[in-house]
Specification:
Oligomer: single chain
Strand content: 15-25%
Low-confidence stretches: none
Bound molecules: pyridoxal-5'-phosphate
Mean pLDDT: 96
Helix content: 25-40%
Number of helices: 12
Length: about 425
C-alpha cells in the first residue's frame, strides 16, 4: 500500500488550498507519519541494546526533516561534505554522524574528521594510508562478494564498487590496530528497497560471524555492527510491506545469542533512508495538457527534475487524482516537459479521467525524490512543503529560480594561454 490512509486523511479537503496558496508542483512531507515510523522502528528494536538508526541523509537532505529525526534520537549517515555540513548545522556531532563515503577524496577526509569528527566508515584498505590522522574509532564497509546475492537496485556484490573483500577484513583491522585505533565497527549494505526481512537478518548474522572471528583472531570487541539501509517500502498497492516486527525479533535473538556466547555484544546500527521518510512524501503536480497521438498523454507541471526514480530505475510510483472518485478506465502516460522520452511518471497506467487543472498525487516521494533531481534541459527543482504535526503547512525549501540556475556562470575571469610542453612517456 503506497501513501498511508492517515496521511491521505490529513490532506483530504485541504490539498486544494495548499496548492492554491503555494502553487504547484511541490513535494509535501508528513511530519506525523515520519515520527510514527521512527517510533515504530525504535519500538521494534527496543530489546536490542545500543540500537541506533543513522538516517541516510541523501534520501531527504532538508534540515527541517533532519531536526525531526534528531528529536527521535537518530544519528545521520553522510557520504559527502554537503551532508556533513547539513547534519552538523542541526546539531549532530561526533558519534551522531557516520561517514560512509566511497572513492573518498582528501578533502572529504578532512571534512569528516574535522569539526568534532564522526564515526568513519572506510570503503577500502588503500584509504588507510590516506587518513589525515588516526581516529579513535574506525569502521570498515564489508562486501561479501559471491557469498551473498544483492538485488536489482544495488546489484550483485561481486560487481558492486563498495567495500573491502572477505580476504581483506583481517588485514584491514590488524593494520588499524597497529596504528593505535582502539574501537571498531563493521558495516555492510547488501540490498536496496528489500521487503524480505530475511536478507537483513542474514546481514546481521554475517556481521556477527565477523565479530566473533575478529575477536578470536585479533582480540577485537566490535563496538558496533551496522547492517546498512535498504529496508524496502511497498510502492505498488499489492506489494507486501516489510515485516519489521519479525526483523526486529530475529535480529534481537541473534544479538542475545552472541551476548550469551561471547559475554558482550556490539551495538546495532542501521542507516535506513527510504523506510523512514519514503511513504511520507507526495509530489503534487497539476495536469496542464492533454495530448492524443499514438498514445494518450497527460502533461503535468513537474518533470523528472522533481523525481528521477521512474526514469532512472523504471520505478513504479503510485498515482492518484485528488478529489476524484471516478473509475480508472483510461490508459495514459503521465509526462513532464523534459526533452527525454523517459520523462514519464507513469507509462500506460490505468487512471480515472484527468481534466486539465486536476491535482495529481505521485506517492512515496519522501526518499530519493527531490534529492535526486537534476537540472538538465534547464528544468528547475520544485519547492518542498512540510505538513506539520499541528496541521500547519510550512515551506521548507523554495523552488529553484533562473537566478539559481545561472548563478555558476558568475565567476571570476581566469584565462590561460597554456604553453606546449613535450610530455615524456615513461
Ligand atoms: C543510500 C544509502 C543508504 C540508504 O538507503 P535506503 O534505501 O534509503 O535505505 C544507506 N546507506 C548507504 C551507505 C547508502 O549509500
Amino acid at each position: 500500500m503506497p501513501m498511508s490512509p492517515a496521511f491521505e486523511n490529513r490532506i483530504a479537503g485541504r490539498l486544494r488550498h495548499i496548492a492554491d496558496h503555494f502553487g504547484t508542483p511541490f513535494h509535501l512531507y508528513d511530519e506525523q507519519g515520519i515520527r510514527d515510523t521512527g517510533e515504530q522502528l525504535k519500538q521494534v528494536f527496543a530489546n536490542v541494546a545500543g540500537f541506533r538508526e543513522y538516517f541516510a541523509v541523501k534520501a531527504l537532505p532538508n534540515p527541517h526533516i533532519l531536526r525531526i529525526l534528531r528529536n527521535l534520537g537518530f544519528g545521520f549517515d553522510c557520504s559527502s561534505i554537503a551532508e556533513l555540513v547539513l547534519s552538523r548545522s542541526i546539531g549532530a556531532q561526533a558519534d551522531d554522524i557516520m561517514f560512509t563515503s566511497n572513492n573518498t577524496s582528501a578533502e572529504e577526509f578532512t571534512a569528516a574528521l574535522g569539526d568534532g569528527g564522526c564515526l568513519l566508515n572506510l570503503d577500502d584498505i588503500s584509504l588507510i594510508d590516506k587518513l589525515p590522522c588516526v581516529t579513535e574509532t574506525i569502521c570498515f564497509r564489508y562486501n561479501p562478494g559471491e557469498r551473498r546475492v544483492g538485488n536489482s537496485i544495488i546489484g550483485n556484490p561481486l560487481e558492486a564498487k563498495y567495500g573491502i573483500t572477505h580476504e581483506q577484513v583481517i588485514p584491514a583491522y590488524q593494520r588499524m590496530q597497529r596504528l593505535g585505533v582502539k574501537q571498531f565497527g563493521l558495516h555492510s549494505m547488501i540490498v536496496s528497497n528489500e521487503r524480505d526481512y530475511r536478507s537483513m537478518v542474514e546481514t546481521a548474522q554475517m556481521l556477527l560471524e565477523w565479530a566473533e572471528a575478529l575477536n578470536h583472531k585479533l582480540g577485537i570487541r566490535l563496538s558496533f555492527i551496522n547492517i546498512g539501509g535498504g529496508l524496502g517500502i511497498p510502492y505498488r498497492p499489492d506489494d507486501t510491506p516489510l515485516n519489521v516486527k519479525v526483523l526486529g525479533n530475529d535480529i534481537c535473538r541473534l544479538m542475545q545469542m552472541f551476548q550469551r556466547r561471547m559475554g558482550y555484544a556490539p551495538a546495532l546500527h542501521m542507516e535506513s533512508g527510504r523506510f523512514i521518510t519514503g511513504p511520507h512524501g507526495v509530489l503534487v503536480t497539476r495536469a496542464i495538457n492533454h495530448k492524443h497521438t499514438y498514445r494518450h498523454y497527460i502533461g503535468v507541471d513537474a518533470s523528472m527534475s522533481a523525481l528521477m526514480r521512474p526514469a532512472m530505475y523504471g520505478a513504479y510510483h503510485h498515482i492518484t487524482v485528488y478529489g476524484k472518485s471516478r473509475p480508472a478506465d483510461q490508459t495514459v502516460d503521465i509526462v513532464g516537459s523534459l526533452c527525454e522520452n523517459n520523462d514519464k511518471f507513469a507509462v500506460q497506467r490505468l487512471l480515472p479521467q484527468i481534466d486539465e487543472g486536476d491535482l495529481l498525487l505521485i506517492h512515496d516521494t519522501g526518499a530519493h525524490g527531490h534529492a535526486m533531481g537534476f537540472n538538465y534541459n534547464g528544468r528547475l527543482r520544485p519547492q518542498e512543503l512540510l505538513l506539520c504535526a499541528d496541521g500547519r503547512v510550512e515551506r521548507i525549501r523554495r523552488a529553484e529560480t533562473l537566478d539559481d540556475y545561472f548563478s555558476t556562470l558568475q565567476c571570476t575571469v581566469d584565462t590561460l594561454s597554456p604553453p606546449i610542453v613535450q610530455e615524456v612517456n615513461q
